[in-house]
Structure formats: structure tokens, C-alpha cells
Write a structure and sequence with these properties.
Blueprint (H helix, E strand, L loop, with lengths): L1 E6 L8 E6 L8 E11 L1 H8 L14 E9 L11 E5 L9 E5 L4 E2 L6 H21 L7 E4 L5 H12 L3 E6 L2 H9 L4 E4 L5 H8 L5 E6 L6 H6 L1 E9 L21 E3 L3 H4 L3 H16 L9 E4 L3 H10 L6 E4 L1
Parallel strand pairs: 8-9, 8-11, 9-10, 11-12, 12-13, 14-15
Antiparallel strand pairs: 1-2, 3-4, 3-6, 3-15, 4-5, 5-7
Helix pairs in contact: 2-3, 2-8
The structure holds NADP nicotinamide-adenine-dinucleotide phosphate.
Pfam families: ADH_N, ADH_zinc_N
Protein name: Quinone oxidoreductase
GO molecular function, one term: mRNA 3'-UTR AU-rich region binding
Length: 324
């Protein structure tokens, strides 16, 4: 028997209900894992609230965790009992003490990365890798705008882009977050509640605009991101913390020959070789000090609702995790 958090209907944090579940035997290509740390992501909030209707209900949310292999399926050759693995998944079923997992998703973790760190780093770190290495490969000398620059993905993104030689401009909700964003490599920070983001970007870039805007906030920031772009600049909308972006007139891109992308990390990591390459890049970036990350603030699995409340409050500045 395993302890899980189950959602029966969408709603506020209170719909995250503790429940006991049965975990069966692994199928031929599956692992049974005992989970040691579970990452909490904004995606989980979208699923819980019903903004994303991608989890069939009743269902167990969550998209990343770390655990120990307890049993392997008959066809599994690359993992054995006792292996320490992490994973990201678009199929949910993560907020639980034990689970079955397709072996194809498991990532062997370097000894230098603790369970708690990996559980809060994998999804955000692979997303940052996708953004700065693949969706818009950042080049030295580029001007980069990052929204929610003190957030989980945001801080990794700022560090990595600045390590690659870009001048990073970060938008943040308050002065404390501005300090964190500067520590993460932002050369300039914009307090978007007090300052006009587009005007400040134009000032900072001497009217040139940015080569790329990484925008995870969506509804509230989309137009400002577009207006902040340089000629041939690239708007990468990779999230919607403030809500869905309104319908968009494609011809608006013509004014500055801009491009727009809406990537998902699960597409970029859809094949084993892609996942391996991205996770190697991430682990190397950590090892070489291009990015630094700390384990998140931990909550008991049964207190998942409290973790969601904190994530939505926008008060916190670090990652969050659940401990089964
Ligand atoms: N496309 C992908 O494959 C992919 C993968 C992973 C994550 N993501 C997305 O990346 C984003 C960041 O994820 P994260 O887990 O690292 O979260 P996060 O950035 O740590 O938290 C969200 C931040 O967004 C800012 N924000 C602005 N308007 C907001 C609003 N109306 N409600 C809530 N927050 C608002 C807040 O920072 P300020 O107070 O500074 O404004 C808040 O701290 C999310 O949108 C997530 O869905 C996308």
C-alpha cells in the first residue's frame, strides 16, 4: 500500500486529498520505485485548478520525482534494484510514496546531486536547458529578457543565459526577488509593479530591444514581451502563471519580423536519446558551476495543499518539494 494525494474534482488546494492506494507489480518495461522526494511545479497548480484538463479524475497529480528502484520488470536491462533515479513525466501519478514507472523515463542521478535537489531541479533544469540551448540558443552578447526571474525556472534561466555571455534583464515582483535575480546573473532588474517594463527594456538596450524574451507569465506579460523585442527578436512563451494568452493576430509579428514559440519540455525530451542529452547538459552545467541550485523547502506529502498555497501566494522564492 502507498500513501498518495488524489484529486477528485478541480478546485483550490483543498481538493488535494490524502488517500491509500495499491501499487501492483511492474509490467515488463516498468520499474516499481519508492519515492524519496517529489517536486512541486506550477503545472501541478494548473492541473489542480482545472486550467489544464490533462489529468483524468480521480487522479494523482505531479510531474517529477526521485526514488529508489525496488523491483524491475522482466524486460528491464538498464536498471537494477537499489538504483537511485529521477524522472519527469507528462502522465502524472507522482504525488505518492510508491509507483510504477516506465523504465524509459528514469534518469540515473550523479552522486553529487541529492534526492531533494534532483526532485526540484529536473523539470526546471531540463526546461532551462531546452530554452537556452535548443528553442533559442543563447549567444554571447545577446540581450535576453526573463520574466519571473527570481522563480524556479527563472533563476536557472538567468544563470545559464548569463554564463553563455548574454546580458540578462529580469522582471520581478518585489525588491527581495530583484536581489535574488541579480545573484542569478541579471545585469538589470525591473520591478514590474512599479516600472513600465517596455520602457525600461528600451532604456537598457538603447532602443534596440531584446533578442529573446523568455515569458512564463503569459496573459499579463505577453504584449509587453512582444513590444520589448528587437528586430528579428524571438518571443518564447513557455508558461502562463497569470492565465492563458488572449487570441493573437499572427500579422503582429510582421512589424519587426519577430518569431513566436510555445515549447513543452516533454516534446523536447520525447525520446530516450534526447532526454539523455538534455540531462547530461544539465548535470554538466551544475558540475561546471554554470548554474547553481539548492534543494527546495520540504513539506510532508500529506501537506501537499499547504505547498500549493505557498506556490500560488507568490511569496516564496525557492523551489518546493514533498517528502513521502
Ligand atoms: N513549457 C514547459 O515545458 C514548462 C516546463 C516547466 C515549467 N514551465 C512553466 O514555467 C513557469 C515557471 O514555473 P516555476 O515552477 O519555476 O514557477 P515560478 O516561476 O517559481 O513561479 C511563478 C512566478 O511567476 C510570477 N507571476 C507573475 N504573475 C503571476 C500570477 N498571476 N500568478 C502567479 N505567479 C505569477 C511570480 O513571480 P513574481 O512575483 O516575480 O512576478 C511567481 O513567483 C510556469 O508558468 C510553468 O508552467 C513550463
Amino acid at each position: 500500500m502507498a500513501q498518495a494525494i488524489v484529486i477528485h474534482q478541480p478546485g483550490g488546494p483543498g481538493v488535494l486529498q490524502p488517500q491509500t492506494i495499491t501499487v501492483g507489480k511492474p509490467g515488463p518495461n516498468e520499474l516499481r520505485i519508492r519515492q524519496t522526494a517529489i517536486g512541486v511545479n506550477f503545472h501541478d497548480v494548473y492541473v489542480r485548478s482545472g486550467l489544464y484538463q490533462t489529468l483524468p479524475l480521480p487522479g494523482i497529480p505531479g510531474i517529477e520525482a526521485v526514488g529508489i528502484v525496488e523491483e524491475t520488470g522482466s524486460q528491464v536491462t538498464n536498471f537494477t534494484v537499489g538504483d537511485r533515479i529521477g524522472y519527469i513525466t507528462r502522465s502524472y501519478g507522482v504525488y505518492t510514496s510508491e509507483r510504477l514507472l516506465p523504465a524509459d523515463l528514469a534518469i540515473r542521478l550523479p552522486d553529487s546531486i541529492s534526492d531533494d535537489l534532483a526532485a526540484t531541479l529536473l523539470l526546471k533544469g531540463l526546461t532551462a536547458e531546452m530554452l537556452v540551448k535548443q528553442v533559442h540558443p543563447v549567444k554571447p552578447g545577446e540581450r535576453v529578457l526573463v520574466h519571473a526571474a527570481a522563480g524556479g525556472v527563472g533563476r536557472l534561466l538567468c544563470q545559464w543565459a548569463s554564463h553563455l555571455g548574454a546580458t540578462v534583464i529580469g522582471t520581478v515582483g518585489n525588491a527581495q526577488k530583484a536581489e535574488l535575480a541579480r545573484q542569478a546573473g541579471c545585469a538589470h532588474t525591473i520591478l514590474y509593479r512599479e516600472e513600465n517594463v517596455v520602457e525600461r527594456v528600451q532604456d537598457i538596450t538603447n532602443g534596440k530591444g531584446v533578442n529573446v524574451a523568455y515569458d512564463s507569465v503569459g496573459k499579463d506579460t505577453f504584449q509587453g514581451s512582444l513590444d520589448s523585442l528587437a528586430i528579428c527578436g524571438h518571443l518564447v512563451n513557455f508558461g502562463q502563471s497569470s492565465g492563458s494568452v488572449a487570441p493573437f493576430e499572427v500579422s503582429a509579428l510582421f512589424a519587426k519580423s519577430n518569431s513566436l514559440t510555445r515549447p513543452s519540455v516533454f516534446h523536447y525530451a520525447r525520446e530516450r536519446s534526447m532526454l539523455d542529452s538534455m540531462s547530461n547538459n544539465l548535470f554538466n552545467a551544475l558540475e561546471q558551476g554554470a548554474i547553481k541550485a539548492e534543494p527546495g523547502m520540504a513539506f510532508a506529502l500529506a501537506d501537499a495543499a499547504k505547498a500549493h498555497e505557498m506556490l500560488e501566494s507568490r511569496e516564496r522564492t525557492g523551489a518546493l518539494l514533498l517528502k513521502p
